[in-house]
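user: can you give me the structure for this one chain? tokens are fine.
assistant: on it. calling the predictor now.
[tool input]
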Amino acid sequence: MAGANSGGFVLGIFAFLLGVAAIAAALRRRRHRERYPETYAASGGIIYTVATAGCGAVLLLGGLGLIVLAVIFKR
């Protein structure tokens, strides 16, 4: 896979890494809630954490899908 054919694969890896980072950020935010409970509650609390982790999971799965498609349809 080289050049234009690797575009989907690279985009899939990028989406996968963004998904992992989003999930890690959501979990980090959840762990630090005891430091700033007012701010955590004002920003949505557990709903914010679940929404962020869910978006990260969608990115992660989308990235895996792009990687699989790039490998299947390579020339």
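assistant: here you go. The first helix runs from residue 7 to 31. Helices lie at 7-31, 37-42, 46-72.
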